[in-house]
Amino acid sequence: MPHTFAEDAQDAIDLHVIDAQSLDDWLAAQDAVVVEWVRQNDFAGNLGQTLLVPANGDRHVIALAGYGTASKRARTHFPLASAATKLPTGTYRIASGLPEEMAESECLGWVLSGYRFDRYKQKSDKTVSLVPPDGVDTAKVTIMAEAETMIRDLVNTPTSDMSPEDLAAAATALAETQGAEICTIVGDDLLAQNFPLIHTVGRASATPPRLIDMRWGQHGPKLTLVGKGVCFDTGGLNMKSSTGMSLMKKDMGGAAHVLGIARMIMAMNLPVQLRVLIPAVENSVSSASFRPGDILNSRKGLTVENNNTDAEGRLVLADALALASEDKPDLILSMATLTGAARIAVGSDIVPFFTDDDDDAQALSDAGARVDDPVWRLPFHEGYEAKIEPANADLDNAPSGGFAGSITAALFLRRFVSNARYVHLDIFAWQSANAPARPRGGVGTGARAVFDALPSLLKL
């Protein structure tokens, strides 16, 4: 993250954030040289516009950042970030114009505007530092930016370097950094320890499937995060098209997100007993592949008629959710790149979530609005329960008909949860086009909303 916070403001350039509709008011307070310079350079305060105004007499160089109009700002997550990327290398200090209620979010966007996934290419040496406004908790913002960066890096990394083994190594590195305990169950040991669905989905891959189990914290309410870690999804024997497979390196986005949230929790030292469970597999094709029509056993004892090998995420999550329930936590929260139906319903920017608890739903919705990380509640609709009950087993992983796919997937997962309140988020984890502080590629969706909601969800 080459864009950082600066501690020394002595040589910082004053940055004036200018709403397009307030430009004339700002100019009215400036000297004639500034007014003429702004007019000659056609600076109108449009979103993303920048302008350096040279020194004159006793006045130092100043910088202007267009903040657009309220309607334009509503269309992007981090409006100021669009200007941050265009400013030359240097250190800047917010001098005026940034609304106090936007300061923390815009500071986060400023730092994230420097994000580049450059593991496989030449790195940029451009650094644009910010002296934040008074009152901004820079330590918190930095932790959030580091967590978001980790999520993006994990999702962006191709499966050649982000196999189930690599994902486990990333989780282990995080655990070691934060003083957490971690263990991993690998390969046939999954069968010995009763995780048959995780083993079934991952057994066709050259890299054995595994269950990652991380614990941190000795006091406070018990929170268990469960993340889907399908490091690549061919669709199995119900193979995806080449187009459908093109983004499947991101099918471990749920795992990346719960690790990012865990990083924030541990770095901020929240008073919780945290557990993170990640079933890490690759859904591959070989002579060991599971087949359409197979009846599969689960850790909970429920049988599943497998009617589509491309509906594998809910299978691996099922065993992990059953394990999570055995610990009787106060809250189980799962995140997964689970269904295309969720994208059809709300698009890529909004995260649908499911819960039976109205207070939890309100807390998560409020948090999403507060931190500009939009979420939207969908129902655990009881009327659709029959859709996931086939003739030959307890459950169907891929009901026919195609309707309400996100809801039926969530209902399937809920069957494996007991002894705890449950929230499930069906995420996308991908930015399809470049946007301020959100370049095309992996991106956090719902992670900041979840973290911001935790004090309410867990009564901290």
UniProtKB/TrEMBL annotation:
<dbReference type="InterPro" id="IPR011356">
    <property type="entry name" value="Leucine_aapep/pepB"/>
</dbReference>
<dbReference type="InterPro" id="IPR043472">
    <property type="entry name" value="Macro_dom-like"/>
</dbReference>
<dbReference type="GO" id="GO:0004177">
    <property type="term" value="F:aminopeptidase activity"/>
</dbReference>
<feature type="domain" description="Cytosol aminopeptidase">
    <location>
        <begin position="308"/>
        <end position="315"/>
    </location>
</feature>
<keyword id="KW-0645">Protease</keyword>
<keyword id="KW-0464">Manganese</keyword>
<keyword id="KW-0031">Aminopeptidase</keyword>
<dbReference type="Pfam" id="PF21337">
    <property type="entry name" value="Peptidase_M17_N_1"/>
</dbReference>
<dbReference type="InterPro" id="IPR048816">
    <property type="entry name" value="Peptidase_M17_N_1"/>
</dbReference>
<comment type="similarity">
    <text>Belongs to the peptidase M17 family.</text>
</comment>
<dbReference type="Pfam" id="PF00883">
    <property type="entry name" value="Peptidase_M17"/>
</dbReference>
<protein>
    <submittedName>
        <fullName>Leucyl aminopeptidase family protein</fullName>
    </submittedName>
</protein>
<dbReference type="InterPro" id="IPR000819">
    <property type="entry name" value="Peptidase_M17_C"/>
</dbReference>
<keyword id="KW-0378">Hydrolase</keyword>
